[in-house]
Amino acid sequence: MRSPGANKLPEDSQPFILVVEDEALIRETITMALMDEGYQVLAVEDGRQALDVIQASHALDQEDIPAIDLLILDLMLPYINGLDLCRLLRQEGMTTPILMLSAKGSETDIVVGLEIGADDYLGKPFGMRELIARCRSLLRRASRQPQLQEQLVVQFQEIALYPQECRVTVRDEAVSLSPKEFTLLELFMNNPRRVFSRDQLLERVWGIDFMGDSKTVDVHIRWLREKLELDPSNPQYIITVRGFGYRLG
Questions:
Q1: What 3-state class would DSSP assign to 219?
Q2: Domains in the chain: ranges and CATH
Q3: What is the mean pLDDT of residues 238-243?
Q4: Any idea what the Cα angle at residue 59 is, between residues 5 and 76, rounded to 5°?
Q5: CA–CA separation, 42 vs 45, rounded Å?
Q6: Using CB atoms within 10 A of its CB, is residue 171 exposed (0-12), middle (13-18) or buried (19+)?
Q7: Rounded mean pLDDT of 15-37?
Q8: Known Pfam families for this protein (predicted)?
Q9: pLDDT band with cut points at 50, 70 and 90 for residue 8
Q10: CA angle at residue 120 from 122 to 114, to 5 degrees?
């Protein structure tokens, strides 16, 4: 259901944000705060409704719902929870930025959310000013993603990366990577043997506006190694250069 005041979307170029939150007060507060900033907003209360809206926004004959520029997604939702919905959307190839919300604030919860494809994570309770700042950051980052001419395949030893297909194989076996893992590996493979610091990787993969810390890089490196290496504890592809960062090969 649409929150009060969101029934008619303004016909302008302002970003369209989908808010998925089952707590009515939080949902309406976020909606009003975003609308006060001039954004177009649609708010729903469960994962099933969110999936319906997202599918409708991609329908060729759909005129009522514009393309979604940002998804604000609560972790604990009825019918389809936030983690499952995020995972499903990324598996379907949706690249829309996702800001995940949750009362769960442990490092494990944050890591899981980022691992399956969320772009940022905000723990409850939070201030509206911080939420707005994070939304602006994600929208800016998405708007300036470079449209690079992609090669058909990038090869490094037994790793083959297909940029146009968002696909990776290792030793001729398909490997499933999250969007951030894929982008990270693509950066390494386009710059073999170049050493990247954690800060450089955060800026190149997550963007200069990312508000997390360097642990995010270490977590994704660990996950990449587990998917690429025969022996992740003794990596042959993604090498740690102590005191500097990481390199490929």
A1: helix
A2: 16-143 (3.40.50.2300), 154-248 (1.10.10.10)
A3: 90
A4: 55
A5: 10
A6: exposed
A7: 95
A8: Response_reg, Trans_reg_C
A9: very low
A10: 110
Q: What is the Cα gyration radius of the chain?
A: 19
Distance between CA atoms of 100 and 20, rounded to whole angstroms? 10
Query: In residues, how long is the chain?
Result: 249
Check whether 148 has a pLDDT greater than 60: no
- pLDDT, one tens digit per residue, over 34-76 is 999 999 999 999 999 999 998 888 764 455 678 899 999 999 8
pLDDT of 1 reads 38
- Taking the C-alpha atoms of residue 235 and residue 163, their distance in angstroms, rounded to an integer, is 24
- CB of 215 closer than 8 Å to CB of 176: no
CB 99 within 8 A of CB 119: yes
Query: How high is the pLDDT of residue 149?
Result: 43
The pair of structure tokens assigned to 71 is 């998804």
Q: Where are the beta strands (DSSP E) in 110-204?
A: 120-123, 154-156, 159-162, 167-170, 173-175
Average pLDDT over residues 199-226: 84
188 contact partners, CB below 8 Å, separation of at least 6: 196, 238, 246, 247, 248
